[in-house]
Design the sequence.
C-alpha cells in the first residue's frame, strides 16, 4: 500500500474509535470519566493528521500520527492501571483529589443540578475481561503500527 492510503486508513481507524466512544456515551448512556476524555484527544489529532496526510502524504506526518497513538496507548495504560488499582493518582475522578465526603451527595447525583462525577477507578464496560481503556490501548498500538507502516511506505508522488 502507498503512504497516502495507509494514512487515510489509520485516520479512519481513529475516527471509528471516536465514533464508538460517542456511541457508548450518547446511545449506550455510559458517561465518560476524565481519563476517558483524555483518550479521545490523540484520536482527534490522528484524524486531522490522516486528513492532512491524504493531501500531503509526508513521512513526518505519518510519524506524528504514530506519536499520537503512542501517547494514547500510554494514557490508556495509565487508565487501565488506575482501574485495576496497580497505582493511584491524585485526581478528582479517582476520588483522591477531592473530599467527596464534604460534598453534598444530592448535588453529586441530582441530574438537574449537574452530572454525577464518573470515577476513573470503576470499569463501566468490559469485554473478555478488558475495559474500554484497555481495548483503546490495544487499538492505539495497532493504529500506531499502521502509522509506522505509512512512514515506511513509498510516497504516492
Sequence:
Amino acid at each position: 500500500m502507498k503512504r497516502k492510503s495507509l494514512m487515510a486508513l489509520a485516520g479512519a481507524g481513529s475516527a471509528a474509535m471516536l465514533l464508538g466512544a460517542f456511541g457508548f456515551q450518547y446511545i449506550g448512556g455510559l458517561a465518560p470519566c476524565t481519563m476517558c476524555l483524555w483518550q479521545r484527544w490523540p484520536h482527534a489529532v490522528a484524524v486531522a493528521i490522516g486528513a492532512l496526510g491524504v493531501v500531503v502524504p509526508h513521512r513526518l506526518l505519518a510519524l506524528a500520527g504514530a506519536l499520537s497513538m503512542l501517547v494514547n496507548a500510554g494514557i490508556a495504560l495509565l487508565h487501565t492501571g488506575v482501574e485495576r488499582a496497580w497505582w493511584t493518582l491524585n485526581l478528582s475522578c479517582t476520588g483522591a483529589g477531592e473530599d467527596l465526603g464534604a460534598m453534598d451527595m444530592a448535588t453529586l447525583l441530582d441530574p438537574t443540578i449537574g452530572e454525577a462525577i464518573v470515577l476513573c477507578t470503576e470499569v463501566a464496560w468490559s469485554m473478555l475481561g478488558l475495559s474500554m481503556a484497555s481495548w483503546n490501548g490495544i487499538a492505539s498500538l495497532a493504529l500506531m503500527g499502521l502509522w509506522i507502516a505509512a512512514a515506511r511506505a513509498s510516497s504516492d508522488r
Remarks:
- The chain has five helices and two strands.
